[in-house]
Amino acid sequence: MMCAVGIMGCRPGESESQGMQDEHHDDEHLEEVHLSQQQVEALGLRVDTLARRVMEGFIEAKGELTVTPQNEAMISNLIGANIHSVEVIEEEEVKKGQVLAYLYHPDLIQLQVDFAEANQQLEFLQKEFNRQSTLAKESVGAGKEVQRVEADLNTQRVRVAGFKSKLRQLNMDPEQVLSGNLYERSPVLAPIPGIIQTVNIRQGLYVPPGDVLFEVLNDDHVHIHLQVFESDIVNIRNGQEVLFSVHGQPNIEFEAHIISVGNQLEQASKTIGIHAEPYHDEEEGLVSGMYVKAKILTNPKTAFALPKEAVVMENERHYIFQAEQAMDGGVLEWHFKPVEISIGRSDGNWVEVLLHTEVINSQQFAWNSAYYLLAEMNKGDAGHDH
Predict the structure, then answer these.
(1) DSSP string spanning 254-308?
(2) Is-contact 222 288, C-beta < 8 A?
């Protein structure tokens, strides 16, 4: 159900007094639009209380969301090998230590064989060193042989330790190899949890040492890289509060705080880079690479504000729509009534709302679709007799 009486001003040919009489006449009627809950949902009409928003006392900055180096991984192979299988796809979420792929190559087998032989040689040298040490205690002149065997033993220890380290880097357990359980495939593991950004391999492909196989990005802990003009940097310090919005959600302000201020001026843009960290409960939905508009709070002052699509102009006056729920014939519906305001400062998609009358904190208003509501009221005005 939709009913309406228009927002009135003086029509051409009317005196000011007549116009005032018409306005008074309108005030005696309920000037509002009635919409069902289904209509409100179909329009995507948002209803909420007036927002308190910082409209002055801040420095504007732009930038993007990024991740720290600890939350981004380029996974490469340490040894030339073929791809046996690829276990993940792009955009898949993975856990730390999860198998991403398997490698195979004769060199992997040879590495394990060489390690086993080196370990056997180490055991032999250890026994020989023990034997020569015993002989040296019983016979003068055997010291040089002990020193020679000890030097060989130490060299072999380093060699075995090197094999063990390489096997662990290839995600193979040295103890399993010494038990005779050779790995036919070497697993490639995720070093961090995150999302697979790129997969640069396919089954059967030979990849030389150092080639990047996967890229993994962990967006759980994004931070903000902002650029601030050199004239503003004197007013910025660590710990300052930051309000920011991202592309696609311009009406939502997230909170962060500055964690570092750069000390190097970029000559081309005459800006200095700073970094801010969102509060942990603000991070959901924030993705690396998103464009950011930010306000660094220096001496913040708040005011009532609404998105610009909540404000409409009629006869050189500005209005917003007060929203209330009511029962009509046992059916719950929304009533939208115009409230005249003045507008103040603008901040992107937001405008300061200067109320002409007091409004209780719980009072709700339409946050968008103001021109649609006005059009519905003007439909009623067309058939109203003054």
Answers:
(1) EEEEEEEEEEEEETTTTEEEEEEEE-GGG-TT--TT-EEEEEEEEEEEEEEEEEG
(2) yes
Q: Which residues, at least 6 apart from 263, have a Cβ–Cβ distance to it below 8 Å?
A: 272
CA 48/CA 248 separation, integer angstroms: 20
The 3-state DSSP class for residue 112 equals helix
pLDDT, tens only, 1-28: 444 333 433 333 343 334 433 443 444 3
Question: Distance between CA 170 and CA 183 in Å, rounded?
Answer: 10
Cβ atoms of 215 and 197 closer than 8 Å:
yes
Chain-wide mean pLDDT for the chain? 86
CA distance 307 to 251: 7
Q: State the greatest distance between any 2 C-alpha atoms of the chain, in Å, as a whole number.
A: 132
Return the closest-CA partner of residue 341 out of 364, 327, 360, 357. 357
pLDDT digits over 247-299, tens only? 878 778 899 999 999 988 888 889 999 999 998 766 677 888 899 999 999 99
State how far the Cα of 343 lies from the Cα of 317, in Å rounded to an integer: 10
Return the closest-CA partner of residue 45 out of 312, 247, 321.
321
State pTM to two decimals: 0.65
**Whole-number Å distance between alpha carbons of 242 and 228:** 13
Quote the CA–CA distance of 224 and 276 in Å, as a whole number. Answer: 5
